[in-house]
Amino acid sequence: MVRFFKRSRHKPEPLVRELIKVVGINQVLYTAEDLIGYEYDATIERAAPEVVVLPHTTDEISSVVKICRQYNRPIVPRGSGSGLSGGSVPIKGGVVVSLTRMNKILDINIENRYAVLQPGVINLQLQDRLATEGFTYAPDPSSQRICTLGGNVANNSGGPHTLAHGSTVNHILELEVVLPNGDIARLGSRVLDTPGPDIRGLFAGSEGTLGIITEITAQIIPLPQSLKTMLAVFDTVTSASEAVSSIIRRGVIPVALEMLDQEIIKIVEPRIQAGYPLDAGAVLLIEIEGIPDAVDADSELVKAACEASGASEIRVATSSEEREKLWEGRKAAIGAIGAAYPAFYLLDGVVPRTKLPQVMEDVLAVASSYGFKCANMFHAGDGNLHPTLMFDPQNEGVLDRVLECAGEIMRICVDSGGAITGEHGVGLEKTSYMEWIYSQDDLDAMENIREAFGPADVFNPCKILPNGHGCAVGHAAEINIAMGGNQTSADIYI
Amino acid sequence: MSQDSETKILSQTFKAFKPELGGRLIDGQEPLFTVKPESVEEVSAIVELAYTKELALVIAGSRTAMCMGNVVNRPFAVLDTANLNSIVEYVPEDLTITVEAGMTLATLQFTLAEYGQYLPINPPPSDEISVGGMLVTGVAGTWRGQLPSARDLILGATTVKGDGTVVRSGGRVVKNVTGYDLHRLHAGSLGSFGVVAETTFKVLPLPVSSAMLRIEPKSIAAGVSLAKSLLNKGFPIRSVVLTSPAVSGLMLSKEEFILFVDIGGSDVAVRQTITAISALSVYPVDSTVITIGQQLRSIFEGDNRIVVRVGVPQQYIAEIMSQMIEMNIAVFANIAASQISGECFSSDSTDMKELADQLGSLREIVKRYHGYLMIENASVELRSKIDPSGASKLSVVDELRRKFDPAQIINPGRIGDSK
Questions:
Q1: Which of A383, A377, A387, A378 is nearest to A352 (CA)?
Q2: pTM above 0.90, yes or no
Q3: Among A448, A460, A463, the residue to mutate for chain B (most B Cβ within 10 A)
Q4: Is the dihedral of CA B142, B144, B146, B147 positive or negative?
C-alpha cells in the first residue's frame, strides 16, 4: 500500500517562500515528515533542518546561499548522507542543500583525460561509465555504490586503492564552488598545477564548511593492462602486519593492501562466502596492477614477503568473479556486522605503518578490557585502522562505555604518532579530539581559514573545529544500532 | 637619519640572529641584511621581531626561483633558510620523511637513496632547489603528470605565520583528514602565507631500473599523438617530453623534434616497455643517456632568462606549441602533465612591452582552452608589465593573506597586485 503524507496546512514561512521562488515548489521540503530523512547521516547523530532545498543549478545554489544569509540561517551541504562522522547533520538547524539532483556526468573527455561532473554523481556510476572507455577514476571509498563525488571531495575520501593512487584531492583538477557570500568561484583549472596558492587543495577535505561544491573536474587514468588480486592467510594479526612492512621493504607498492582479522572473517565468511579461511588469524587482500610481466614479477616479491612473515597460504584470484568475491568480503564487511550484531561502533584512526603490530595488539587489549568484541578490517598499507566495537545496546550504560573505549583507541593512534581520522573526517564526531593533535595556535590558524572564506557559522557550523561559536563540544557518535535485527546496515561501508 | 644609519639600527635589533649586511640583489634591490635561522624557534623569533618592526622579509632557500612572481614591493631583509637543513624524522618503512625546509632536494634524495627510496619529483633547474622552495613555487618537472608533485606528496608542515606564530598541520602518516590541510595552502603560494620551516612528504621506492628512449617524430602533431598513445597503455613511463628543434639543438646539436621517453620500474617492466614501445612506434626508437632528463631540467636555468610555462588540455598542445615556436620561444612539452615550458629569447634591445603583449595574447588563448600561462622567470621589467602568475583573482586569497600575514611582511607583493 502506498502511504501519502498530507502536507502541513500552515502557510510557509517567508524563508521558504523565497526559496520556492528560486528553485520551484518541488525542490523545497519543509514539512516535518519530509525532513526526517535529512536529519542524519550514517551515524546516530540527529538534528532536524528547517528546510531542505534540492537545487538543479549552480545559479540556484548561489541564490539559495544569498537568501540564507539574508535570513541568517546556517547552510549544510549534503550528498547521499553516507558520511561516517556526522558531517552532514544540521546540528544548528537551518537549510540543508541536497546535491542529489545535480547528478549529471557533464563530460567524459578521454582525449584530455578528465571528467566534468556535477557533485551528486555517484562514485561507482562514474567508474562504471569510464570502464566502458578503458579508463577509471581511482579513488574508491568502500561506500562507492552510494556516495557522491561532491561528498568525496568534501571529505577528501580515501578507499582501498589510495595506497598507490592517493586520496581524492590528488585526483581533482578544478572545482566550481559557491562561497559564503553567494559568489561562484573556480578553483584550479583543467590542467595540473594551476598558478597561485592551492585553494583547490585546501577546499578538498573541508567538510562543507567553506562553501558548496557545484562542479568537479576530475582526472581519469587508463585501466591497467594487468591486475592480480591475492589473498594471503596468516595465523596472527601481528604476522600479517609484519608482512605489510615486508612487502613495502621489498620495493613493491601494491595498489591495495587490506587486512581482515579473525573476528571479522568469522562474521563475513558465513554470510558472503568470499573465500576467506574461517580458521585464519588474519588475511591480507593484496592487489597489484601494471604491465603483465611486471605484475608477475611483483607478485612473486609479494609472495616471498608473505611467506617470510609466516603466511600459511597464498591464493591468487584466477577469474574476475573470484576477484570480485574477494573484494565483496572486504567491502560488505560492515553490512555483515550489522546483520550479525544488534549494534556496533565503527572507528577510523591512522597510524604509521610500522606501528601497526603494536597498535593492533593495544587496540584489541583495550576493547577486551571493556568486554567488547572488536572486529578489524582496514587499509593496512596506509596504516588506516577501522576497529569496530560490537555490543548490545540494551545493556545499561553501554553507550558511555563504548565511547570511553573508543576514546582510548583514538588515544592509542595519536600516541603512536598517528591521527584521529584517515578518511571519515572530523565532522561532529571528533571535534573534541582535535586538541589531542593540534595546539591552540594550530586550531586558531584553522579558524583563520574558515573566517577567510566567510563568517564561521554560515556553512556547516560546529564541524571540524572544537568549541565553535554556539556549538556544544563534539563527541564520538559513530554508532549504528540495528534495532530488532531487521536492519542490516547494508548502506554503511568503510 | 640616512638610510644606512636606519639599516644599521635595524640590523642591531636583530643582533641576536647574527645579521649579515647586504646580500645578493633580489628584484634589483639590495637586502637590508640577511639572517639565517637554525631552528623553527629562531624563525619564529625573527618573524615576530620583524612583525613588531614592520620589516618586510623575503624568504630565500636555494635561490633558484627568485625571479618568480611579482616584484617585491618594499625594502626588505632576507630570511635565508640554508641552515634549516636537518632531517627531523625518517622511518623508511613508513615511506615518510620530515625535513627542515631549507634542505636541498639533492640532500634529501641522497638520504632517501641510501634506503632505496626517493621523492618522485624532478623540478627545474636541479635538485639544488630547497624543499620549501619546491613546495611554494609549485615547480614540478618532467615527471609531473605520470608522478605526483609536491602539492600531492605533502603530508604535513610546520610553518610560521607573519606574526611569528608557529603552526603545524597534517601529520606524519600517509593518509590523514584531521582538520584543514593548511600545508596545501602553501603549495604555489610563493611563500605568501608565512615561512615554511618543516615539511613531511610521502616518498616512494626508487625504481630498480630506468631507461631513456629517443624518438624523432616528423612533426609536433605526430609526436604528441605518439606520446598520448604510449601514455594510454599504462606503461611504467615517468615522462614523455617533446622538444622543439631549438631545444633539441641546445641539447644534442640536432634541430629536430625529439620525443624523450623516461621509463622507470623493475628490470622486467623496463625491458617489456622498451620492447613494446619499439613495436608501437612508426619511427626508430633509440636508447639515449638518462642524464638527458637533467639537461631538460636545467636548460632554462639562470636569472636573466625569460621562462614561461603553459598548461593546456592535451588536445591543444600541438597548436599552442606551434604558436610558441612561431613566437621564437624555445619549447618542450611534458605531454602527461599537459604543460609546455619555454624560453623567450631576449636581448637588451628586446621590446619588453611587445613581448608582454604577445604573452598576454597567448594567455588569453590558453585561458579560453581552460588552461593557464605563467611566467616562471623573468626580469623585473617584464614582470612589471605583465602579471607573472596569471592566477585568477580570488578575494579569499587576499583574506587568507590578511589572516596569515596581518602586516603583509612576508614576501610582500609576490602574489596579488604588485603595485
A1: A383
A2: yes
A3: A448
A4: positive
Best residue in B112, B172, B173, B317 to probe A by mutation, most A CBs within 10 Å? Answer: B173
Look up residue B65 and give its DSSP letter.
S
* CB atoms A253 and B315 under 8 Å: no
pLDDT of residue A10: 56
Domain B87-205 and domain B300-385 have a common topology: no
The closest CB to that of A205, out of B152, B171, B177, belongs to: B177
The reported pLDDT for the residue numbered B350 is 67
Asked if B179 lies within 8 A of A438 by C-beta distance, the reply is: yes
Render pLDDT for B12-52 as a digit per residue (tens, 0 to 9).
899 999 999 988 999 999 999 999 999 999 999 999 999 99
Q: Which residue of B has its CA nearest to A164?
A: B204
Place of cell 597503455: B233
Q: B331 pLDDT exceeds 90?
A: yes
Question: Which of 3.30.390.50, 3.30.70.2190, 3.30.1490.20, 3.80.30.20 would CATH assign to domain B209-296?
Answer: 3.30.70.2190
**Which residue ranges make up each domain of chain A?**
14-98, 105-222, 226-331, 335-425+477-485
Using the Cα atoms of residue B132, residue B133, residue B137 and residue B141 in order, give the sign of their dihedral. negative
φ, ψ (nearest 5 deg) of residue B8: -65, -45
- CATH assignment of A226-331, among 3.30.70.1030, 1.20.59.10, 3.30.70.2190, 3.60.10.10: 3.30.70.2190
Rounded-to-integer distance, Cα B240 and Cα A193, Å: 17
Query: Distance of CA A404 to CAs A369, B179, B301, Å?
Result: 12, 22, 58
Instruction: Write down the pLDDT at residue A1.
Output: 41
Calpha distance B95→A252 (Å, rounded): 12
Residue A488 reports pLDDT greater than 60: no
What distance in Å separates residue A205's CA from the closest CA in chain B?
Answer: 7
Q: Over 60: is that where the pLDDT of A174 sits? A: yes
Look at residue A476 and tell me whether its pLDDT is greater than 60: no
Per-residue pLDDT at A213 exceeds 80: yes
CB within 8 A of A128, min separation 6: which ones?
A: none
